[in-house]
Amino acid sequence: MFRTLRLTNLLAARSVATTAGPQASAVAVNQHSAPVDFGTEPERPHMVTAIPGPRSLELKKNLADVQIGFTIEWVGNYEKSFGNYVHDVDGNVMLDTFMQISSLPLGYNHPALHAVARSEEYIAASLNRPALQYFPSHNWMQLLQDSLISIAPRGMKHVNTFMCGACSNEHQIRSVAICAAFMRRQGRLPSEEELTSTIRNQAPGSPKVAILSFLNGFHGRTLGCLSATRSKATHKVDLPAFDWPACNFPRYKYPFEENVEYNRKQDEMSHDEVDRTMKEYKAKGNPVVGVLVEPIQGEGGDAHASAEFFRGLQRIAKENGAAFMLDEVQTGMGITGHWWAHEMWNLPTPPDTMSFSKRAMAAGFYASDDYQVKHDERIRSTWSGEPQKAFLLRETIKVIRQQNLLQSVRDTGAYLVNGLKQLKGKYPSLVQNPRGAGLYVAFDTKDKDVKEKIYKSCADHGLILGSCGVTTIRFRPALIYQKKHVDVTLDILDTVLSKQN
Amino acid sequence: MFRTLRLTNLLAARSVATTAGPQASAVAVNQHSAPVDFGTEPERPHMVTAIPGPRSLELKKNLADVQIGFTIEWVGNYEKSFGNYVHDVDGNVMLDTFMQISSLPLGYNHPALHAVARSEEYIAASLNRPALQYFPSHNWMQLLQDSLISIAPRGMKHVNTFMCGACSNEHQIRSVAICAAFMRRQGRLPSEEELTSTIRNQAPGSPKVAILSFLNGFHGRTLGCLSATRSKATHKVDLPAFDWPACNFPRYKYPFEENVEYNRKQDEMSHDEVDRTMKEYKAKGNPVVGVLVEPIQGEGGDAHASAEFFRGLQRIAKENGAAFMLDEVQTGMGITGHWWAHEMWNLPTPPDTMSFSKRAMAAGFYASDDYQVKHDERIRSTWSGEPQKAFLLRETIKVIRQQNLLQSVRDTGAYLVNGLKQLKGKYPSLVQNPRGAGLYVAFDTKDKDVKEKIYKSCADHGLILGSCGVTTIRFRPALIYQKKHVDVTLDILDTVLSKQN
To answer: How far is it, in rounded angstroms, from Cα B399 to Cα B408?
Structure first.
């Protein structure tokens, strides 16, 4: 296939350039940069220890004295890692289908990004980080045009940049609450009484208004986001929370095609609950100003819902006077085979706000004209994003387009799900509900213990997976993950599952 | 003075190296890097337009269609800027005493940081951003040792890294609330009832607990931080807030030496109010688990308080069972002539938590052993900071030590305050209450209108100032701001003030 060949060639070309010097210019390497000794992607993982190895364990122990370190799984050597393969400090070389919790779009050390990192404009951006809402850099507008604006969802002309997924969701929520207040007041600015009372955190200046989210949803851990997050009690317990409602997200049976009627019923039950809850909260003086939802629940166990569900949800939100807010922190930037997952739904009107981060490297939220704050310095932070990240994003978008990676993601994702279905045939209790959109792929297994065994044993065999929900294994590979990588993935999974059986 | 000469020589050496090539090695430039055409610092600003100039205005207009852009003051060219002088897109060269809202410790394009940006380890960190709490990089522990741990406040052995000041404060607050819950339960893990109820944002799992902060304090705009922020109504209005208390921060008369008794009375009134408020909130079932305070209120108008005030505040917090939490986002990293402002207070025991960001480039919070979360994955984010920023911080610390910049900051700050006192003698209604700690310096003026005129007119004369509170002009220069820069600053101020008089 031509696309696949081109991508393979790009990776191969770089390894030639490493030895052949001048050929580096083929990947537009900055004239000042030196060749980087990447090597090339190996054919398969190469393991010398179990995971974590002794050196990882030692570093983990040292680090745990200083930082919260008990969740460290292994320690990487990111200078040696390349493409889909990650090196750890014990000399293990592993196929990484999780990519730093879904946040490296082009894998490790992509040559095109190396060229960016050596450019004068990138270095200047690194060292002179501006306060973008006061003193932006001369190239910021053009950089936005060439990056975030060039992939803006239809109908969303505003984009506000921030630091990470959580703070993007915080500001998305703030933007919705502020615009809702302007609508309630029919455009009037806050009154003197509102301005005075808010300094004391009291009504009417600090009103009771709610964000509706979904059980098992994850939106971050800062206290605003956390009031909408409902995935794990350990994220939330002991911390104060707003009186915000959460409804059930549809829980589908798979395969989707064989359970259409059951799943439609799930949609309806969820819709009814959302509508009822919004009316209840309005009646008790705590109106829902926004409905916040992930296109696919990630942390909560890779729960998918239909385009019909989301179109209905948008309608119900609007009928009840609330914004339709998407959290595309994990689903965005190509992993579903579309720039944004919600592009699969054919919504009649755009979402009101949509956050992004992770694989976009840059973070922030898009807004429709109704939900972009236009008065005073209401939505803001010192830095408000980082041009450096936008340089990386600009180049990443270029690579995705040149290599036609969105198509590759759709094809490769279908190939992976198909392979998982075959494993399901072979190990029906161990591989359940294989499902995906593009490379946003998952399957469930028997129980939590078995999940952890599969996860751990795959790592020992050189395959890094993700884990979510209670019994779910998730894949979040780079967009350059191809069929040959799927073959290695399925081969290792088969080996591991055969031992569990 | 030897120190001053050394710093000047470093900057001068770089400009020689630009033309003389090989001499670049004098500042440890990476062997792969090319010479950068910085030029050198000018003697004075060079203005060709008023601020903002026509090109800045045009870019602001374009940007405002896309982002919140009405607060843009000018558009910078950070590739051309150097040292204390910033270039804008209209060809103006200005002395910058605000440094991107206090967040560039070594000014623009410091040669030592350029060398870091060209190093392979920095580039690898840029392009392969790890999820630090799961898969840290091989050099992360050493990097922490050489950066954040090497300047850790006495008694604070834990440091947790995050993205910016707001998210560091969010996690600082979360850490305190979580540790307080463990103390309340005498170490017991959360009960099943707590785990179940928290998913619904309900007690007992989501308890009522409060953070006490101060009127005019600023701690960020995410919803948790915002419940503690009390500086401007426009930051807070229309947004839901927790029922958290705020007390009066001492409002001193200056000069401090001539108002000792009055100011001591201010301390006492604030202490009494804090103690009374904590008891009230405990009685109403919303106990204060932490007292959060800035060492010097920045956004709120550069309000200083005495070491005695903070020692007393720490005592009252502890007596009432709450953590003593510092927000050193703006006061930290050398600007007061100490690594951390609270080092000036001679506290009997360390603070419980302390956040940092801005000038540290890296962000996060330090914690005492009592307030470091040690159970489960409670304090966390996908990225949890960024090694790249720690590389810049490590080199910055090295430069600060080599150049003895903390001493320079104290000397230069005293020289600046002394100069402002002379301007006060000349323009008593326009320059009031000159005050400072190191280079964290400010003065008040007659009223808001006059403040804005001085601010704007100084910019037109090539002097970038900061502004805060209602009538306050603040200085937040880089740590390489020296007496010769003070002379230029005072000279321009004198010119501007003479026209206002």
So the answer is: 12
Please choose, from the candidates A224, A188, A194, the residue with its C-alpha nearest in 3D space to the C-alpha of residue A206.
A194
State whether the Cα torsion A27-A32-A37-A38 is positive or negative.
Answer: negative
CA–CA distance, B28 with B24 (Å, rounded to integer): 7
Distance of CA A347 to the CA centre of its chain: 21
| pLDDT (tens digit per residue) in A6-30 | 334 344 433 333 322 222 333 333 3
Backbone Cα Rg of chain B: 23
Is the CB of residue A57 less than 8 Å away from at least one CB of chain B? no
Q: Count the neighbouring beta carbons within 10 Å of the beta carbon of residue A365.
A: 33
B positions 242-281 inside 8 Å of A (CB): 242-244, 246
Catalytic status, residue A358: yes
Say if B227 is an interface residue toward chain A (CB within 8 Å): yes
Order of strands, sheet of B323-327, starting from the edge strand that comes earlier in the sequence? B158-162, B363-367, B353-356, B323-327, B288-293, B210-214, B246-247
Among the partner residues A63, A79, A244, nearest to B121 by beta-carbon distance:
A79
The pair of structure tokens assigned to B129 is 């951003």
What's the pLDDT tens digit per position in B478-489? 999 999 999 999
E strand spans, B263-322? 288-293
**Average of per-residue pLDDT across B72-95:** 97
- Cα–Cα dist B164/B144, whole Å: 17
- Look at the block and give the residue holding tokens 């870091």: B116
Q: Model confidence at B375, in pLDDT bands (50, 70, 90)?
A: confident
B142's tokens? 């050493």
Going by C-alpha positions, the residue among B19, B219, B137, B419 that lies closest to residue A100 is: B137
Bond into B130 cis (ω within 30) = no
pLDDT digits (tens, 9 = 90+) for A430-476: 999 999 999 999 999 999 999 999 999 999 999 999 999 999 999 99
Say which residues have a Cβ less than 8 Å from residue B276's Cβ, sequence separation at least 6: none
pLDDT at B23: 27
- CA distance readout (Å), B486 to B46, B191, B420, B463, B477: 17, 60, 10, 11, 10
- The pLDDT confidence band at residue A262, using thresholds 50, 70 and 90, is very high
Cα–Cα distance measured from residue A90 to residue A76, given in angstroms and rounded to the nearest whole number: 9
Cross-strand partners of A242: none
Can you name the residues that pair with B443 across neighbouring β-strands?
B473
Contact A87/B at CB under 8 A: no
Query: So what's the pLDDT on residue A258?
Result: 94
Rg (C-alpha) for chain A, rounded Å, is 23
Give the count of Cβ contacts less than 8 A between chain A and B. Answer: 405
Residues A168-208: pLDDT tens digits? 999 999 999 999 999 999 989 999 999 999 999 999 999 99
B12 pLDDT higher than 90: no
Q: Find out whether B175 and A239 touch, Cβ atoms under 8 Å.
A: no
